[in-house]
Task: structure prediction
Amino acid sequence: MNPTRKYEGLFIFPPEEGPDAAKGGEKRLDEAISRLGGRVLDKKDWGRRPLGFAIRRHREGYFLLWNFEMETHQLAELKKNLQLDEKILKTTIVKYEEPKPAPAPKVHASKS
Result:
């Protein structure tokens, strides 16, 4: 059995289709992840935002940020399926690591 890892995915949809298209996109994403044996951990709807550069002539996009887990060997299949979806402008998936707490600041003893 392959190890299960946590991933973070940012999915950008065309802006003119708005939240309704993103809801349909959410359903397709959810189905794609669960069909490959994954499990969605968290969903964040970032809404409409400007893009840093034009993607297929769009200067804005509708953003969804998801955390999910799945077996490592299934990730390539998920990426391939998402690239074939014409309703998604851009997909970025990275390995997710829990944020580490910031180290306590060092206190320097003053010399008197």
Remarks:
- The chain has one domain: 4-95.
- Helices lie at 18-35, 75-84.
- Residues 4-95 form a domain with the Alpha-Beta Plaits fold (CATH 3.30.70.60).
- The two ends are 63 Å apart (CA to CA).
